[in-house]
Amino acid sequence: MSRIGKLPIVLPSGVEVKINGNDVTVKGPKGELKQSVPAPLTVELDGEEVIVKRPNEERESRSLHGLTRTLIYNDVVGVSEGYKKDLEINGTGYRVLAKGTDLEFSLGFSHTITVKAPEGITFTVDGPTKFSVAGIDKQLVGELAASIRKLRKPEPYKGKGIRYAGEQVRRKAGKAGK
Length: 178
Known about the structure:
Blueprint: E1 9-10, E2 16-20, E3 23-28, E4 31-36, E5 42-46, E6 49-53, H1 59-80, E7 83-90, E8 95-99, E9 102-106, E10 113-115, E11 121-125, E12 130-135, H2 138-149, E13 161-164
Antiparallel strand pairs: 1-6, 2-3, 3-4, 5-6, 7-12, 7-13, 8-9, 9-10, 11-12
């Protein structure tokens, strides 16, 4: 039995779950998310708990059991609390500006880079070198933060670039002088 999959998902107050066949809709104070459940698995609502069950011990059912439970749990946390990724910029002249709902980066290129906020994502800028990506969908928040980080990854010699808050960049020694 999957150690993660067998755990029930306890619903916090203000969160509703509706199960319609293989579709699970999670509704909360921050919004609404939908999750599709793969065919061999079933989802049941037991009072204030959601339980994911698998019909057999086949390899595919076992592999999807914990994954499905975690995806539904991420939706429950997202609509009740939300997700947030903090990022920071290091480097001389590197900065970020909020332009309405979008972000404009100056990262040492000859041009500025504009990142548009997809639906359900909000950007907050806490100074010229600190900003955050927030939303209710964990996958979308993480994916957008990773794509922003990819604009200028932290380089190992001086540590310049965009990094997650608290991320440690391994530094390399530069050229040895004579």
